[in-house]
Amino acid sequence: MGFRAGMDDLNRLLKSTNHPDVLKFANTTMIAVGQDYDIRMQENANRFGGQALVALQNTQALALAGQRPNDLHDVVQIIDQNPELNTVATAFIAFRQLSGENVKMFDSAAITSWCSRNKLKCEATEKPAPPTPK
């Protein structure tokens, strides 16, 4: 599962079935995949002093798209919208570090719930305008 679509499909499966075997498979898969991404993306963050936000800021695809995150709001936007699961996983680690909330990897509902209780922390902050070229 390298793309967000796989994670989204698995989450849809978890929400749409009551079949015990399917639920067991989906839950087991989500836990195993989440643990693997947690380990690998923490290793990535460790290359940046353990700071997942800095790791995200140094993600070439985000920089090229003009989406370098600066705060918790930006991190939540990556979690909600980015199609690349490595980037989303790193954003989950950054969310934990910035919020102090120990959410499970890929538990978007926990992030939504936390943000609904902490709106000011998840809202966009005023960002300075980029420097004008001379």
Highlighted features:
single chain, 134 residues, mainly alpha
Set out the fold topology.
Blueprint: H1 4-16, H2 20-46, H3 52-57, H4 60-64, H5 72-81, H6 85-99, H7 108-117, H8 119-122
Give Rg in angstroms.
Answer: 16 Å
Strand fraction: under 5%
Structural class: mainly alpha
Largest sheet: none
Task: Outline the low-pLDDT stretches.
Answer: none
Shape: globular
Say how many strands there are. 0
Please outline what is shown here.
This protein is an all-alpha fold and 134 residues long. It has helices spanning 4-16, 20-46, 52-57, 60-64, 72-81, 85-99, 108-117, 119-122.
Description:
By secondary structure, the protein is an all-alpha fold. The protein has one domain. It has eight helices and no strands. The model has no long low-confidence stretch (mean pLDDT 89).
